[in-house]
Specification:
Number of strands: 19
Distance between the termini: 21 Å
Structural class: mainly beta
Mean pLDDT: 89
Order of helices and strands: HEEEHEEEEEEHEEEEEEEEEHE
Radius of gyration: 23 Å
Strand content: over 45%
Length: 487
């Protein structure tokens, strides 16, 4: 490991000397100590204690003021005590680009999340980025992921900045053919056509408001083999009965308002699209939604903070996301394309950072083994909170959240044929209530130690969502300690 790290850094330094590049290096190390209890609401014994860590570097090489190479890479990331460096290939039995991201752990030597060049056209208001980089909109409710593609910033021509982007989301079945029919790969996929994402974001200011107006268009052509990139090609399970997204158009507005002692973050999104795959069953692990091919949905979000005194801030959050009122037909619901789970309201209910290509990081009830909702999917939430700083280095936070489903959640069960039956006569809206806390102490400006956690009291709807019934309603609780060093 030490030799490999030294080799990588040496390569960067040699490149810098050869091309006289100005190198800037920063990054973060975080270790999470997790203690999770009753995440399946008492259906099975669930008391899990583990430690996860992440070491991330961001390197920028600039040969002049107008040209930069930027990369971000991770090393030694994942669960303490789990050595999967050799076992990952044995466990997946697959090859190809997507298999490179499976089962990262503390012995996964090196992984590049982002790698792109960024250049300005001299005396022109244009900045280009080419490579693998972050794509996101608003508060990371609809899109929050790294993709390969091209981005263009147009500065101070239309608003402060107009960003246009294109991303190649999927290159068929990890190959170079765009044929509709190919020999099956190791997972049975045969349609080699591609998926593309286009986004547009306008950033501007008006008096005390900084806002973004944006839109996206996504098209996945690889559907003739009865699967779509989202969710069939992902490395984790989404919420049960999710649609297969073959086409998606979305528009939205988000921003921040600062006036006096009040700060407000807001977002409103509307989405519409297509699920061109006709499913007669829900699939293994209740994977798919049955619908008429039409998708639509929305997100509404408002977070407010009032700096009541020098040490005390009071706040609140209101969020609402659309849901599916009929899992056996009609329109399907869509709230997002793909996210990495960094949108935060609560500790347990939807704090669900995912084990995707960026690595394995802590997860809440939205994790693949539990599969509750993530972000604002079919969720209506109201929260009140308070932040108190008794001394300069210490920050404390406490919140109470009341959570309901926007559309009723139905009970479900398996039948003798391995399919899943939705109980149309048994439904509920009460997802639950949650109390959270957070206590952070800055040992140094760059080093922070935090203890945080939550206590979630599930309602009947949470039981239906997670287990298919309301036989198990044990309270869920979690404690988490983190140490973070930013350099």
């Amino acid at each position: 490991m030490k030799r490999f790290t030294l080799l990588i850094l040496t390569i960067f330094l040699m490149v810098g000397l050869l091309f006289s590049a100005d190198f800037k290096v920063n990054g973060v190390y975080t270790a999470w100590g997790q203690s999770q209890h009753n995440f399946l609401l008492g259906k099975i014994k669930y008391n899990d204690n583990y430690v996860v860590q992440m070491l991330r570097f961001k390197v920028q090489a600039a040969v002049n003021d107008n040209l930069r190479l930027i990369t971000r890479f991770d090393m030694a990331q994942g669960w303490w005590g789990v050595d999967n460096a050799l076992r990952s290939v044995q466990r997946t039995g697959t090859a190809g680009g997507s298999a490179l991201f499976d089962f990262k752990d503390t012995n996964f030597l090196f992984h590049v999340d982002q790698a792109y060049i960024e250049f300005d056209l001299p005396q022109k208001p244009l900045t280009f980025r080419v490579g693998r980089m972050w794509y996101g909109l608003g508060n990371k409710l609809m899109v929050d992921n790294n993709y390969d593609g091209v981005q263009l910033d147009v500065k101070n021509v239309v608003g402060k900045k107009l960003t246009l982007s294109w991303a190649k989301v999927s290159e068929g079945v990890d190959g170079i053919s765009d044929k509709e029919a190919l020999a099956p790969d190791s997972r049975g996929f045969t349609d080699g056509r591609d998926a593309h994402l286009f986004t547009l974001n306008l950033n501007n200011e008006f008096k005390c408001i900084n806002y973004n107006v944006y839109g996206l268009y996504y098209n996945d052509a690889s559907v003739s083999d009865m699967n779509a990139y989202v969710p069939d090609h992902l490395q984790f399970f989404k919420t049960r009965f999710s649609p297969q997204i073959t086409q998606l158009t979305a528009v939205g507005i988000s921003g921040t308002i600062k006036k006096g002692k009040v700060t407000a973050d807001f977002e409103a999104d509307y989405l519409m699209g297509k699920d061109d795959i006709k499913n007669d069953i829900y699939g293994a692990k209740q994977m798919w939604d049955k619908n008429n091919g039409d998708l639509s949905g929305y997100n509404l979000y408002l977070k407010m903070t009032h700096a009541t005194t020098d040490k005390l801030s009071l706040g609140g959050v209101v969020g609402m996301g659309s849901g599916d009122d009929d899992l056996s037909g009609g329109k399907g619901n869509v709230n997002k394309l793909r996210t990495s789970g960094f949108f935060y309201i609560t500790e347990i209910w939807e704090d669900s950072i995912m084990p995707d290509e960026e690595g394995i990081t802590p997860q809440g009830l939205g994790a693949p083994n539990v599969r509750a909702y993530r972000e604002l999917e079919n969720t209506t939430i109201v929260q009140v909170n308070a932040t108190y700083k008794p001394v300069k280095k210490l920050t404390t936070f406490v919140s109470y959240s009341y959570i309901r489903s926007t559309q009723p959640v139905h009970a479900w069960r398996g039948d003798d044929n391995g399919d899943w039956i939705i109980d149309q006569n048994k439904s509920a809206n009460d997802l639950g209530q949650e109390v959270d806390f957070r206590c952070s102490y800055k040992i140094y400006d760059e080093l922070d130690f935090t203890i945080r956690g939550g206590y979630f009291i599930p309602g009947t709807a949470a039981g239906y969502l997670i287990n298919g019934n309301d036989d198990f309603t044990d309270p869920v609780w979690e404690l988490k300690s983190t140490i973070t060093y930013k350099f």
